[in-house]
Design brief:
alpha+beta; ph1033 like fold; six-stranded mixed beta sheet; 4 helices; 6 strands; DNA-binding
Length: 161
DNA sequence: GCCAACGTTGGC
DNA sequence: GCCAACGTTGGC
């Protein structure tokens, strides 16, 4: 099993959208960056994913989702009505992939950027590098556990609810 | 709203 | 293949 982080703007898709549909698989589509796409292609069913809220009031990691369906061509790329339409893509030659994910847990607080920067295990994390724009990022087991441990140590209920 | 950083495009 | 211009991301 592998670990990941995915960014989302909560106005478009937030941890609450997952929490409100706890057993529903939601499509993670619209990734239009080759590096991020390639990471998505490496995802397998059961992989765990931190959800990160960006460009919003409370920036940071807000919960966990998991992969329930590995990559398949993102249907939005063929749809001229979609904001994710790519005229250079076709069903014969798809460019972009999606995965399906579902809710695992919502943290009882946002693990904010400033706090993430204090976690020494994350010193090399691309997420925290200046100018980083990657929306799908791999986490090592060490990095993952360090984040979870930070939550646990600050809460009485293991950082989840 | 500002601006730094980055990825992509397109002319050459 | 180079690189300037442009559009987008994302924190502040």
């Amino acid at each position: 099993m592998a670990y990941w982080l995915m960014k989302t703007e909560p106005d478009e898709c937030s941890i609450d959208d997952f929490a409100n549909a706890p057993n529903k698989a939601l499509r993670w589509d619209g990734v239009r960056n080759y590096q991020a796409r390639n990471f998505m292609r490496a995802m397998a069913t059961g992989d765990q994913v931190f959800l990160y809220h960006s460009s919003c009031a409370e920036i940071g990691i807000v919960g966990i989702v998991e992969v329930v369906k590995a990559t398949y061509p993102d249907p939005a790329q063929y749809d001229p009505e979609s904001a994710y339409f790519d005229p250079k893509s076709s069903p014969e030659k798809p460019r972009w992939d999606a995965v399906d994910v579902r809710f695992v847990s919502k943290f009882n607080r946002v693990l904010g950027l400033a706090e993430l920067r204090t976690i020494s295990a994350l010193a090399e994390q691309p997420l925290l590098r200046k100018g980083n724009r990657l929306s799908v990022i791999p986490f090592s087991t060490t990095e993952w556990r360090a984040v979870v441990a930070t939550l646990s140590s600050s809460d009485s209920d293991n950082g989840r609810k």
